[in-house]
Amino acid sequence: MSEDKNLDAFVSRLHSNRQQMETIADWHIRAYKEGGVELPWAIDSTWVNMNVYGDYVDGNRDLDTEASLEKLSKVVKFATKQKNVLVKKNYDDRDFELTVEITSDDESKSYTIMYYVKREAVCTRRVVGTKEIPEQIVPARTEEVVEWDCEPVSLLAIANRD
């Protein structure tokens, strides 16, 4: 190791980030080739939208729940056949999330990829009542109005001071 601790720390982070990106990119490539899972746009995507929308109707695009679930099912089918992979499901207020946790062979690192669809793709929305929301008035307050006066700055002149 060198005596430059800043450089050593930077190179260590670079190695770790490179390892993460390569692991996740490899996952996406294998899922595509072996499982027919659609490739995400970003190489190192860890949050992948699996929603499929139909045509515009009255200015809106309806969620194609069947096509969305078909895409998500390919992920599950592929992921459950892989070693060192844990698959979890979670429902939140808006989405259904499928978490794929990939652990390295030596179990020293794990990476998580979250695939998600809108909750309506897997659940049926049901109104069970109503509630009244009282009117809310924001109290008066004083806020600063700010403008900036900036002098031209030469970053090269600053850098060359020494």
Keywords summarizing the entry:
single chain, alpha+beta, 6 strands, 23% strand
> Largest beta sheet, briefly?
4 strands, mixed
User: How many DSSP helices?
Assistant: 3
The helix content, as a percent range, equals 25-40%
Number of domains: 1
How is this structure best described in words?
- By secondary structure, the chain is of the alpha+beta class.
- It has helices at residues 5-35, 65-79, 155-159; strands at residues 47-49, 53-57, 60-63, 85-91, 95-103, 110-118.
- The protein has one domain.
- It contains three helices and six strands.
- Strands 1-6-5-4 form a four-stranded mixed β-sheet.
- A hairpin with a 3-residue loop joins β4 (85-91) and β5 (95-103).
- It is flat, with a radius of gyration of 24 Å.
- 13% of the residues are buried.
SSE map:
Elements: H1 5-35, E1 47-49, E2 53-57, E3 60-63, H2 65-79, E4 85-91, E5 95-103, E6 110-118, H3 155-159
Parallel strand pairs: 1-6
Antiparallel strand pairs: 2-3, 4-5, 5-6
Give me a quick take on this structure:
With 162 residues, this protein is α+β, with helices and mostly antiparallel strands. The protein has one domain. 31% of the residues lie in helices and 23% in strands.
